[in-house]
């Protein structure tokens, strides 16, 4: 994927600090054409507009 394994583990846990959007999209593209990104409502009760 082009990023260190500890960063991959952090991403899988939802920790996105320290990685820019471009690097994340590049890593996802390296996974191949069968990657599906689904965006839906949050499972947590958070204020609108918060990530």
TrEMBL record:
Coiled coil location: none
Gene3D superfamilies: lambda repressor-like DNA-binding domains
Top-level taxonomic group: Bacteria
Stretches assigned to the HigA2-like helix-turn-helix domain: 2-39
Organism encoding this protein: Halomonas flagellata
Protein name: Helix-turn-helix domain-containing protein
């Amino acid at each position: 994927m082009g990023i260190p394994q500890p960063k991959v583990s952090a991403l899988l846990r939802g920790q996105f600090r320290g990685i820019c959007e471009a690097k994340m999209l590049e890593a996802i593209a390296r996974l191949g054409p069968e990657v599906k990104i689904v965006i839906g409502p949050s499972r947590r009760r958070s204020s609108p507009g918060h990530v």
